Prior knowledge:
- By secondary structure, chain A is α+β, with helices and mostly antiparallel strands.
- Chain A is 41% helix and 20% strand.
- Chain A has a seven-stranded mixed sheet with strand order 1-5-6-10-9-8-7, sandwiched between helices. Chain A has a three-stranded antiparallel sheet with strand order 2-4-3.
- Chain A is rod-shaped.
- In chain B, helix 7 crosses helix 8 (362-369).
- Classes of the chains: A alpha+beta (338), B alpha+beta (788).
- Chains A and B meet through helix 5, strand 1, strand 2, strand 3 and strand 5 of A and helix 7, helix 10, helix 12, helix 13 and strand 27 of B.
Amino acid sequence: MLTDITAAREAALADIEGAATLDEIATLSTRLLGKKGDLAQLKTRLGQLESIDDKKAAGQAINDAMSIVSSALDERRTALSVEALSVRVEAERLDLTEYVGKPTRGHAHLVTQAWERLEDVFIGLGFQVAEGPEVETDWHNFEALNMGEGHPARGEFDTLFVDHVTPDGKSGTTLLRTHTSPVQIRTMLESEPPIYIVAPGRVFRRDTPDATHMPVFHQIEGLVIDRDISMADLAGTIEAFTKAFFGAGFTSRLRPSYFPFTEPSAEFDIQRPDGSWIELGGCGMVHPNVLRAGGLDPEDWSGFAFGFGIDRMAKERHGVEDIRDMYTNDIRFMEQFS
Amino acid sequence: MKILLSWLNDYGDFGDPTDPVAVQRVADALTSLGLEVDSVTTVGETVPGIVTARVLRLVQHPDAAKVQRVYVEAGDGVERHVWCGAFNMAVGDVVPLATLGTTMPNGMTIERRGILGIDSEGMLCSSSELGLGDDHSGIRILPSDVALGRPYGEALGLTLDVLIDADVTRNRPDCWGYVGIARDLAAKLGVEFRPPAPGSTVTGDERVAPVEIIDGDRCARFTSTVISGIEVKQSAEWMARRLTVAGMRPISNVVDVSNYVMLELNQPNHAYDLDTLGGGGFRVRLAADGEALTTLDGEERTFTADDLFICDANDVAIGVGGIMGGLDTEINDSTTTVALEMAWFSLVGIGQTVARTNLRSEASARFERGVDPYGMPTAIARFVELLSETCPRLVVHAGAVDARSEHLPAEHRSVDVRISAVNRILGTDLAAGDLPRLLDPIGYTVSGTGDTRSVVLPSWRLDSTEEVDVIEEVARHYGYDRIGKTVPKSVVHGELSVRQHRRRLAREVLLGLGISEAMPNPFLAPDTLAKAGLPPEALRITNPLVAEESVLRTSLRPGLLRAIAYNESHRRSGVALFEIGHVYPPAEGELPGEYEALTVVLAGADAPAAVSVWRELAAALGTGARLDQSKVPDGLHATRSATLQAGRDPLGAVGEVAPDVLEAFEVTERVAILELDLDQILDREPKPTQWKSTSRYPSSDLDLSFVVPDEIPAERVEKAVRQGAGNLLVDVDLFDIYRGERAVEGTRSLAYRVRLQSSDRNLTDADIADVRRGVEAAATKLGAQLRT
């Protein structure tokens, strides 16, 4: 009996050793450990033994053999699993640098990117964003901004006029806004102070395009109207913007200039960490006549305004040599930029 | 304004032009005053190797008519021979000789070169060759009493100098003259200001050149002074040099003094030959419509009744008031007596004539900005003082005329200035005593006590009229850089509006779909809208730069189609572009019907690609619309386009661009297109989507295929499926469309996958059978047949 048990065990172990796949292991597991397996069959012969000790010894031997076979099956199954996994993984090897796709992301216009960056910085400084029409009235674009009819500064704007006729039959008074400043007037007329806005937008000049000028371009304008707003507040706001937008190592300065809609007026320059200066834009204290045009009493309210070009920010940030390239809508140009 | 530093130093000790530190200090001070310095250039550098030489002999060569042989001596006793193409010198003249090896300002090196086998040992130089102006008509003749063989700069008294180019803004009329700049700069730098102080002028008997001002609103002051004893000749070297540096050609002593006084005192003026002045006097009147005058620049021009003429006493026009004299009244070599005009013209009037005629001059630029209406007496005296230097027998006659109209600005204008207002606007903490300290040096006279002070405005600052103008002067002379930097304490919080947020969202969705943002020109050519299949009604620019850019767009479509064509022509097919921008259709009202639009174009794609973009956008923005294919939008493909209908108003269009439009734009690919009116979409923010529970029970998919006649839109089939499926329906997905041989003529097969799920139990076969029956019934009612 014990010999048979040993023989059955050894035969089983040999079968397990010879199994080459997990499927064979599964089949063997059923055959060797199941009720019809050789060892299970030997159990049925235990009753034929005479002595209790023999029965005990044989039973123990069968159980031991079953246990050994079971362990061998587990071991072999694990080994085969590991091998099968490694074979599969090896078979699935890919060269990830074999890239045949194309990037599918679209590209925002450089002006939009600069525009949104500027908006975000000013929002962080407590400004809201205002907008206005691009086709404007002479009144909003000039007259309300302290440039009445015949004001010599009007000529410097190279205005494009539109053949729209107003309800009272006037022509020649509708134009393409030459700056974003009409939004100042609209904001003052439509809302109550305190006013803290920036107005980014498209503006138009009768200018022949060249490497640094386009007849259609973009500006951002800031307007603050509140109680006792001073030129020191203007200088401080420009400084805060400079540090937020360009970096902590940058500073700003104001120097006298002239605009009809502000007084005192200033140009503001930004100083790079290396000491060089960039002329950025114009600013000043809102002229009392402009406050009046906006329906505000200059004795009650004061404010400042500032403005500068967006296109130039985009152009200089990316080193674009000719501003016209930003407007060719050439996909090869757009794809250069994220 | 170009400022020669040595000239400016006539009016104060501003700095040695050869000291770079001093020059920088002056430039910085000018910029800090608002006179932004564009450039600082060194002038008066002489060319080494060019020396003084005397002409010994002039010899004509028989075979060379255009050149002559000149023998010169340059202080070393050696006779040198040079060929010369100029003939203006005489024996005994001293001329500049560029010796062999000299490198000229234009880079040329003087070499021993021959004509007809005879070498030239140098070159004689013209003014332009020396870099002294643009006169190249002859050799520059130097003063004859100088040492020979010396650098020519010594003979001309040339010294190293700097020319500062500073921008003068419109509010600084005074800075069109040296004295105005010097006054501002002296105050800033704390330097003593020394304006010219010419003495009394009248030296002769009475001679009157009468003046009659007809149109006093255009000319408010006109003085005429008769000066005799004039000898017309060349100006002194120093004056000619200063004028040359200022960009004016020296002409004669009278004309040069006239220009010099204008540059110095900002008072344009004109000297008329009294012997040829008709009637010996002046009439100042508007031109008649069509009246002609040949101006000093030699052009005959016609004028209108809005232009001001200076006429002689016989009413013959002799000049355009404040802008340019007439050709016939020019001083000539035989002039001995002049009537000197110094006048004041209406700023607006000058501006109008300049704008209309495009005729402009140094004088008009000054009058247009506003010269001092009370500066004439000093300017007349200065004119006489300077002219006396070359005309020692000059006589200024009594009887000078000073005609004025009631339109002349008051001599003493004053405004009240509150110190509290100064500090409120500037954010400073100035005391009352600071005002005179800052203002008096620039001619603003402060008086009074308490918060409100009276300030008399200088007559040369016509731009100054109100309190805030004085506040600006205080700021300039206090120093913008000394004003603090504070941040206002705002109660407003920064944010984007709903519309701005949603615009960004739309842009992000499109970028995520691989579509890039274009910014085409909003100006179109007159035929572009028609080419795009759009109504031609549009606003026009009345003064376009070019006709091709004279129409305001009513649609973003043409610009984007042109962008596709451009990219195709650069071998980039299949581009996907969008634009978010304003369009400007005509409309009744104060302003046209401007609105914000969005257009997407997908080159090389069919209409469904555009529908798919629309669905993505609509889902992201929480909006929707019905696709109405019965309404074909203008210029789109008749069988592949739909109007997007939301309620009564069309929201936009989707589909493909019509083939004939593509052809007109020279686009060879198909172009799928989506056009939206963002004004209807961006302002309305949808309510936040409300949560729905996700079922824990398994779902089951049911694939149903229908034979659908072509005239029934898939949209309606899907709607029928949804209705028929009842409340177990989770999702319907069209996954296959078949048209072809195996389909019945005039139909196609549409296959939908219907996902079913219950929120509270497992589905049974009976449930699925019910859904199938329900869907079949709804589809049959529509005219679609369920395939089994």
